[in-house]
Design a protein that fits this description.
The protein is of the alpha/beta class. Helices cover 17% and strands 28% of the residues. It has one domain: P-loop containing nucleotide triphosphate hydrolases (Rossmann fold, 3-Layer(aba) Sandwich). Strands 5-2-6-7-1-8 form a six-stranded parallel sheet, with helices on both faces. It has a three-stranded antiparallel sheet with strand order 10-9-11, with no helix packed on it. The protein has a two-stranded antiparallel ribbon with strand order 3-4. Strand 3 and strand 4 form a beta hairpin. It is globular, with a radius of gyration of 16 Å. The termini are far apart. Bound molecules: zinc ion. Zinc ion binds next to loops. The site of zinc ion has 8 residues, from loops.
Length: 180
């Protein structure tokens, strides 16, 4: 069916938007599922941002979703899945399943994630581009996510998907404040 993407830097309210889309579904008979990558070690089974909470199942592979009889599928932190996994999204769309996926669009160097590129190739019906407040200049124009270790920005040498395990910190920043 249709693919809807919610993209933007850290702290831009992507998960909030995604959860909002699924809140009312809880009270319907529509079979739906919410998922996030098992690589996300920060959240424990519960999905929470801005006070809203919904349960999301952690999965290693999106192919798990193919076996289920769902009408609507939500995926948080989609960029954490390998680009090869996006073939499964194509399969789900062919099965008439609606997919709403949120995630970072660009990595710590400001480059688009291969996973996101693959999603764009599937022809999303709608893309919501979110902005965050730049944590350097405080303008509401942050489009990148700067990654820090010991308060120093890291400009190279990292894998493009970085585990959120407490070693690194993240700041949304605008074009002017982003360091490459
Ligand atoms: Zn700025």
């Amino acid at each position: 069916m249709e693919l809807i993407l919610i993209l933007g830097p850290m702290k831009s309210g992507k998960s909030f938007d995604l959860i909002s889309d699924f809140m009312t579904l809880e009270y319907t008979n529509i079979p739906f599922g919410l998922y996030q990558s098992a690589r996300n070690v920060r959240d424990e089974n519960i999905w929470s941002r801005n006070g809203l909470e919904l349960k999301a199942e952690k999965i290693n592979s999106l192919s798990r979703i193919l076996k289920k009889n769902l009408e609507i599928v939500g995926i948080d932190e989609i960029h954490m899945f390998d680009e090869k996994e996006i073939e499964t999204i194509g399969e789900l769309l062919k099965k008439n399943i609606k997919i709403i996926a949120s995630g970072l669009d660009t990595d710590y160097q400001g480059k688009i994630f291969p996973t996101i590129k693959k999603l764009l190739e599937l022809g999303p019906k709608k893309i919501k581009y979110k902005r965050a407040v730049c944590e350097i200049c405080k303008n509401p124009d942050a489009i990148y996510t700067q990654v820090y270790k010991n308060n120093k920005p890291i400009l190279n040498g990292l894998p493009n998907v970085i585990p959120d395990n407490g070693i690194y910190t993240y700041k949304p920043v605008c074009r002017n404040c982003f360091l490459k």
